[in-house]
Each structure stands twice: as structure tokens, then as C-alpha cells.
Amino acid sequence: MSAIGLAMAAFGAALVLTAMVRVYAVRRELLDTPNARSSHTVPTPRGGGVSIVLVYLVATAFAALAGWIDAAAALGLGGGALGVTAVGFWDDHGHVSRRLRFAVHLGAAVWALAWLGGLPPLPLGSGSVDLGLAGDALAAVAIVWLLNLYNFMDGIDGIAATEAITVAAGGALILLLGGTPGAAGWLFWLAASAAGFLVWNWPPARIFMGDAGSGFLGFAFGALAVATSHGGAINLWSWAILLAAFIGDATWTLLRRLARRDTWYEAHRSHAYQIAARRWGSHLKVTLLVGAFNLLWLLPLALLAANRPGWGWALALLAYLPVVAAGVGLGAGLPDDQVSRPVAGSGGGQRSARRS
Fold first, then answer.
1. Where are the alpha helices (DSSP H) in 28-158?
2. Fewest beta carbons less than 10 Å away: which of 17, 193, 253, 321?
3. pLDDT tens digits, 49-84
4. Looking only at Cα atoms, what is the longest distance across the chain?
């Protein structure tokens, strides 16, 4: 089987498996029910993102056995992903304590970094900076934050899967142009798996991703960023740029809520993308906007950062500028009574959830 054939198989398998998970979720009454802090209006099955995980891990194992990707890197990502997915799937079925989730997330990050060789040197100016053990500790915290913020950003139909597809495809393109097709395939398979799920999650969603899927995607991008940045064709600046839409919105919103002394981990709907969806009365418009932003703004900047790594920090600032500006303009992190009301005549009642 070729790398392209594996991607096609991943898409088909995720498509079918998501349908099967939906039947399971309905029978077990695993439903996200609308409440004051969610955006959706219709009870909808959750947990469909587990199909992305299972399909992608099988594709990764196949590629590792075929010698297309490094076996140690595959073990690092796969082992950590299983832990993150297990605790997320458990949480989709019932409550899991924050301490247990954090312990599993941190353990998964440390496991992955141990197999991946730690944080690679960070390009800066005409050289690079090796942060050593401090960098590894920083990378572990960053991966834990990334997998949690991905869950926070999974709040309207289609957005989390669209982010996964565009970011993974963008990273794959950079790696292809850099002459590392094996690593590029690793990302294409992730994009294909997410695309199979997106068929069911496209607005109006028939199943939501759930913690198992969103946590896995955040972890996978963190681990893949470290793994692929060791090769030289792509660097951490490029990855920070590709993920700017999610990282920027989630981080700005968190800082705003912390400044207000809100409970940071409490469910809410004050991210910029959630406010935009309410103002426009459409999840589809916001999801399409995020996809277009990733491809038309972030991807070109990430390509420049890959070719001019010494200027990656400046390109990253440029990438995050419109994201933070959108957060400020929309009032991200503020309570509902301080945010502009929906535009008159924009419609409403779109299906959404904290976890899509």
C-alpha cells in the first residue's frame, strides 16, 4: 500500500467508524444536552472523535512497520495518545477528576518527549538556542496546554476537525517541500482521519468530537511538532504559526478570564469564535473562516518561517496579531452581558456545543 492509499483508507475507515460510534453513543445516551454555557440547542451524541484516534494510530503502526516513519517516534506518539484518549473517553462517559486528567496528560507529554528526544533547538537570528532540560519541561507544559486548549476550542460544529485538516495538511506541505515525504505522510494520514470524521461533524453536526478526540488532536499536534522539528525541514516557529488560530484565541481568552478572577477551568462560551458564531448566527461561517485563515494567512507565514527560521519569531508575532485583535474586538473572555448582541436578522438556533 502506498502513502496515498493509506490516506484514502484512513478517510474511509474514519467515515465508517464514526457512524458506528454514533450508533453506540445514541444507545448509551451519551448526549451533550444544551445548557446556559453551551452554544447548541439540540441534544447531540458525543465521543465521535475516538474514530480519528483509532484510525490514525492503526495507520501510524502500519507506517512504522513499513519503515516509512521512525518507530521510536511512533511509539512516543502512540503511547501518549492512548493515555490521553483513554481518560478523555472515560470523561465522555462520566466525570473524571481534574487531578487525574492532569496527571495523565502530563505523563503522556513526558512519555512522548522521552521517545522523541526532547525539545529541539529553537532557531533564533543566525543561530539557535538549545534550552536543555528547561526546554523539555517547557515543552511538556506546552503539550498539556495544547491538548486542553484544543478541547476548549472544540465548541462549534466542524471547527476542531477543520483545524486539524488544515493544520496537518499545511505541515505536510512544508515537509514535502523540505524533502521529507515520510514525515509528510504522517500528517496527511491525520488530515485524512479527521476528514472522515468531519463528514458527520459538518454543520449541522450529527455527532460531536468529545474529549477523547479533541484531547488527542491537541496532544498529537504537540508531539508531531517536536518530532518533525528535529529533521530541519520544519521548525517550532512554523508549528506555532500553523496553530495560531486555536492557540491565540484560547490563550487570550484564558488570560482575560484570569484577569477577571473567573474560574479558568469552568465551562463557558466566551472564546472569540463562539462570540462570532452567536453574532453571525452561523457555525458554518466561522468554521469556514478559520479554515480560510489557516490556509491563506497562517500557511504562507509558516512556509516563510521554515525557509527563514531566524525570523520565525517575528513571523509568529505577525501571525498572532489578527487573532488577538479579533479577541479584543469581539470581547473574548468577557461575560455575555458585556459582549455585543447578535446582529439583527442574522438568524440563530444553530446546532453547537462546548464539545463538537
1. 50-65, 71-93, 98-116, 132-152
2. 321
3. 999 999 999 999 999 998 888 999 999 999 999 999
4. 58
